[in-house]
Specification:
- It comes from Microbacterium aquilitoris.
- The chain is an alpha/beta fold and 331 residues long.
- The chain folds into 2 domains: 210 residues, HUPs (Rossmann fold, 3-Layer(aba) Sandwich), CATH 3.40.50.620; 74 residues, Uridine Diphospho-n-acetylenolpyruvylglucosamine Reductase, domain 3.
- The protein has 12 helices and 11 strands.
- The strands form 2 sheets. A 6-stranded mixed β-sheet has the order 3-2-1-4-6-5, with helices on both faces. Strands 7-8-11-10-9 form a 5-stranded antiparallel β-sheet.
- Strand 7 and strand 8 form a beta hairpin.
- Helix 1 packs across helix 7, helix 5 packs across helix 9 and helix 9 crosses helix 11.
Length: 331
């Protein structure tokens, strides 16, 4: 028998590892655009899922953003069927909130969530690769949005209660292309992936190659290692916050309050995380670093300053407490 192509074997190993442990008879859904990454993922899922007693389906979202989008979606669905997956195509209207990339992503994730709920899927699988992770980390670094964005994408996360798996985060993009070629699969090349008006494309086509040329090979892998280390640090901080927060918060009228003494006793990194965590949990908004530091000044540099207006809430010093109240509470 001919030997298995190394690229095919690598993608299958990654998928097998992600699927192992899911309940026998469960359904898994592949988000399939028709590009090389998701097509290689679909092929591996189509091969590995039956061996683990799983049923596999694919969901292709037609965003309607390009003239041939319906044909591209149909081709992806046909490919899925030949690979042993039950294909589904969903046409969506993409809004404008947050820009075209964010709006399309939100629409796509909404379709995947609804499809997974409809069939009670055990997991949704996406084809993000090591290269995607490196780009995400570099974009987060450029935005200066803190360690949270530098963690990149998680290999396993949650999509409104549904496990979201990214089995290929340690697989290079070139490997998925090689895997497609070895299996006679013809991926679709999204023209948006070459349009320099998108920051991610500029990172992919210009910034990362320039860094590789100037600093040597291995930049993408180094960025991904950094993301993994930061995620480990964040998980440790989260455990510390979970252990601490119940003892230092209490209900307040129209909001929640945190002990000044307890915040002051913690190092700045943990203090700032507690502040962000409290606001995010209670008011479902995210604070910038500048906003977080302003709230922290109510603890460390108290000089009688008044309330601080934040997204969706206000913060003020009230004796031995920092009180967070809803923006419309009038407090």
């Amino acid at each position: 028998m001919p030997s298995l192509h190394p690229a095919v074997a690598e993608v299958r190993r990654a998928v097998r590892s992600a699927l192992t442990g899911l309940p026998e008879g469960a359904v898994v859904i592949v988000g399939l655009s028709g590009g090389a990454d998701s097509l290689a993922l679909a092929a591996a899922v189509g091969f590995e899922a039956p061996k683990l007693g799983l049923r596999a389906a694919s969901v292709t979202v037609d965003h309607g953003l390009q003239p041939d989008s319906a044909e591209v979606a149909s081709a992806a669905a046909r490919a899925a069927a030949t690979l042993g997956l039950d294909p589904l195509i969903v046409r969506v209207e993409v809004g404008t909130e947050g820009g075209p990339e964010a709006a399309a992503r939100d629409a796509r994730y909404g379709v995947l969530r609804d499809a997974a709920r409809d069939v009670r899927a055990a997991a949704v699988l996406l084809g993000h690769t090591l290269d995607d992770q490196a780009e995400t980390v570099l974009l987060g670094l450029a935005r200066g949005s803190g360690a949270g964005s530098l963690q990149g994408m998680a290999a396993a996360s949650d999509l409104d209660g549904i496990p979201l798996l990214r089995p290929l985060l340690e697989v290079r993009r070139a490997t998925t292309r090689d895997a497609c070629a070895a299996q006679g699969l013809e991926p679709w090349d999204d023209p948006h992936n070459r349009d320099p008006k998108y920051a991610r494309v500029r990172v992919r086509e210009t910034v990362l190659p320039m860094l590789e040329a100037e600093l040597g090979p291995g930049i993408a892998e180094a960025l991904v290692r950094t993301a993994a280390q930061l995620r480990e640090d964040a998980e440790a901080f989260d455990e510390m916050i979970d252990e601490t927060i119940e003892d230092i918060v209490e209900p307040a009228e129209a909001g929640i309050a945190v002990s000044v003494a307890a915040l002051a006793a913690n190092p700045p990194a943990l203090r700032h995380r507690i502040i962000r965590h409290v606001v995010a949990s209670e008011f479902h908004v995210s604070l910038t670093r500048t906003q977080t530091l302003e709230v922290a000044r109510l603890v460390t540099e108290w000089a009688g300053q008044g309330p601080i207006d934040l997204p969706g809430c206000r913060a003020r010093r009230a004796g031995a407490l920092i009180e967070f109240t809803g923006a419309g509470s009038g407090l």
